[in-house]
Specification:
By secondary structure, this protein is of the alpha/beta class. The protein has 3 domains: 34 residues; 289 residues, Alkaline Phosphatase, subunit A (3-Layer(aba) Sandwich), CATH 3.40.720.10; 113 residues, Arylsulfatase, C-terminal domain (2-Layer Sandwich), CATH 3.30.1120. Helices cover 35% and strands 15% of the residues. The strands form 2 sheets. An 8-stranded mixed sheet has the order 4-3-5-1-6-7-2-8. Strands 9-10-11-12 form a 4-stranded antiparallel sheet, with helices on one face. A hairpin with a 3-residue loop joins strand 10 and strand 11. The radius of gyration is 25 Å and the shape is globular. Belongs to the sulfatase family. Keywords: Hydrolase.
C-alpha cells in the first residue's frame, strides 16, 4: 500500500508537470502568434515625389497607391544620410552615421556596434533578407537568419524559399529592390515628351529620355512588389505590418548625395489591418533611424535609450500626430567621386544646410562619368548652357554652393531661394545653426574628410582627371 501511494504521488507529480509544460507551451505559442509579422520593402534611389501617392502625375505606381489606401502615409519621412551604405547602416542600428561609424558610402558600422536585428531574434523572430537590404562586410550579414543577395527575380526567390521552408515563428522579412538605382532600363514605357521635370532640371531631349527610363524602372519595381505582397500576405495572414520606403532620393542632380528635399525626404507607407486606420495620413516628422525601434516597440521589445532612433508607434495608432521637432541629416562623401560633406537641420518649415567645404566642387558619378542610363544627359546640359543663362546658372549652382543655405520649405518646396542673407531670418538662422552645431558635437561628429576635395580654383573632375587623383 505504501508503494502504491508513492507511485500514485509520482504519477500525480508527473501529470501536473505535464499540464504545466503544456500550459507553458500554449502560452508561448499564443504569445508568439500575437506578435505581428513584418514586411519591410526597400526601394533604392527613389525620389519621394516620383510615385503617385506623393503627387506624381505621369509615373504609375498602383501597388503603392493601394498600400496607401489601406494604411498610413507619412508626408514627412526622412533618411539619416542620402547615400546607400550610411542610410542602411542607420536603419539597421538606430544610430546616426557619426555614432555608428558608417559615414561615407560603402562603409560599415564600427566593430562592436550592434544591429537591431539581434533584438528581434532574441524575442523569437526569424529575420530574412532578400535582395539589396544592406552593405555587408565579408561574411557579416547583419544578423539575418537567412539572406539571398540576388537583386533580380525577388518574387521568384522569396516564393521559392517559403514554399520550401515551413516557418512557425513570427517573421520579419526585408526585401530590397535595386530599382530605380542606375543604370536605368533601356525601355521607355513613358512618352519622353510627356514626362514631368523639376524646375531645377535643364529640359533637353536626353534628359526626358532618361526620365522616361527612370519612370519605367519605378513602375517595374511597383509591379514586382505587388507580386511579393500578394504572395507573402497569403502566407503570413492579416497580423502582418507592411512597410514601404526608400533609402534616399534618386540619382538626379540635387537628389542623391544632397541634403535637399529631393535627397533626404523619402516615401514611407505603413499598413497593418485592424491596427492602422486605412487611408490615413500624417505630417509627423520621422527618420529612418526610428523604423526598427518602432518594430521593436510593437513587438513588445524594450527600446534602448542609447539609440538615436525612437518608436513612432503612437503615430501609427493615431494616439499622437506629432513626433520629432527637428530632423538631422548628414552626408560625408562617396569615395573620390563625391567629396562634399554637409550637415542639415530641418523643422516643419525651415531647413538650414552647412556645407563643410564650400570652396570645393560638388560632384558625383553622374556628372563625372556621364554613362548611358545614369548621367549621359549631362552633355546636353552643357550644350544648352552655352546659349542659355538659366541653364548655366543651374549648372553653376550644382557645382558650387555657399557655406550656408537656408530655405522656407513651405513657400519654396524646391529650395530655389537661399534666404541665408535675408536679415528677417537672422535670429532663426542663428538659433538653428547653434542647435545643429551642438548636435554635431553631441554626436561626436569630427567633420572628417575621407578623400581630397576638388578645389574650385582647379578644373572640375571628369572621367580622365579623376583617374590619378
Amino acid at each position: 500500500m505504501f508503494y502504491l501511494k508513492i507511485i500514485d504521488f509520482m504519477i500525480g507529480k508527473l501529470f501536473n508537470k505535464m499540464i504545466f509544460l503544456l500550459v507553458l507551451h500554449l502560452a508561448s505559442t499564443i504569445s508568439a502568434q500575437e506578435k505581428p509579422n513584418f514586411i519591410v520593402y526597400l526601394s533604392d534611389d527613389l525620389g519621394y515625389k516620383d510615385v503617385s501617392v506623393y503627387g506624381a502625375k505621369v509615373v504609375k505606381t498602383p501597388v503603392l497607391q493601394k498600400l496607401s489606401e489601406e494604411g498610413m502615409t507619412f508626408n514627412n519621412a526622412f533618411v539619416a544620410s542620402p547615400s546607400c551604405a550610411p542610410s542602411r547602416a542607420a536603419l539597421l542600428t538606430g544610430l546616426m552615421p557619426a555614432r555608428n561609424g558608417a559615414e561615407v558610402n560603402h562603409a560599415f558600422p564600427s566593430e562592436g556596434i550592434p544591429y537591431l536585428i539581434e533584438n528581434l531574434k532574441s524575442e523569437g523572430y526569424k529575420v530574412f533578407a532578400f535582395g539589396k537590404v544592406a552593405h555587408y562586410r565579408g561574411n557579416e550579414k547583419c544578423g539575418f537568419d537567412f539572406h539571398n543577395d540576388e537583386q533580380v527575380n525577388l518574387y521568384k526567390n522569396i516564393s521559392k524559399y517559403f514554399d520550401s521552408n515551413n516557418v512557425n515563428t513570427p517573421v520579419c522579412i526585408f526585401v530590397g529592390d535595386r530599382r530605380p538605382h542606375v543604370s536605368w532600363t533601356k525601355k521607355m514605357d513613358y512618352d519622353p515628351e510627356k514626362v514631368d521635370l523639376p524646375p531645377y532640371f535643364i529640359d533637353t531631349k536626353e534628359t526626358r529620355e532618361h526620365r522616361s527610363r527612370y519612370y519605367t524602372d519605378v513602375t517595374g519595381m511597383d509591379n514586382e512588389m505587388g507580386q511579393v505582397f500578394e504572395y507573402l500576405n497569403g502566407k503570413l495572414g492579416e497580423n502582418t505590418m507592411t512597410l514601404f520606403t526608400s533609402d534616399h532620393g534618386a540619382q538626379w542632380p540635387f537628389g542623391k548625395w544632397n541634403l535637399y528635399e529631393a535627397g533626404i525626404r523619402t516615401p514611407l507607407i505603413v499598413k497593418w489591418p485592424g491596427k492602422i486606420q486605412a487611408g490615413s495620413q500624417t505630417d509627423a516628422m520621422v527618420s529612418w533611424i526610428d523604423i526598427l525601434p518602432t518594430l521593436l516597440d510593437i513587438s513588445g521589445i524594450k527600446v534602448s535609450n542609447h539609440l538615436d532612433g525612437k518608436s513612432f508607434a503612437s503615430i501609427l495608432s493615431g494616439k499622437k500626430n506629432q513626433f520629432r521637432k527637428v530632423i538631422y541629416s548628414t552626408h560625408t562623401g562617396d569615395d573620390k567621386f563625391n567629396v562634399y560633406p554637409m550637415r542639415s537641420i530641418r523643422t516643419d518649415r525651415y531647413k538650414l544646410i552647412i556645407n563643410l567645404e564650400p570652396n570645393a566642387y560638388h560632384t558625383n558619378h553622374s556628372d563625372i562619368f556621364r554613362k548611358d542610363g545614369a548621367g549621359a544627359y549631362w552633355d546636353s546640359w552643357y550644350d544648352e548652357a552655352e546659349n542659355d543663362v538659366k541653364a548655366a546658372n543651374i549648372i553653376q549652382h550644382y557645382f558650387v554652393r555657399p557655406e550656408m543655405e537656408f530655405y522656407d520649405i513651405v513657400n519654396d518646396p524646391n529650395e530655389q531661394e537661399n534666404l541665408i542673407e535675408n536679415p528677417i531670418y537672422k535670429k532663426r538662422i542663428d538659433k538653428l545653426c547653434k542647435q545643429l552645431l551642438n548636435w554635431m558635437e553631441e554626436q561626436g561628429d569630427e567633420k572628417k574628410i575621407y578623400k581630397k576635395v576638388y578645389p574650385i580654383t582647379g578644373p572640375k573632375p571628369n572621367a580622365e582627371t579623376i583617374k590619378n587623383y
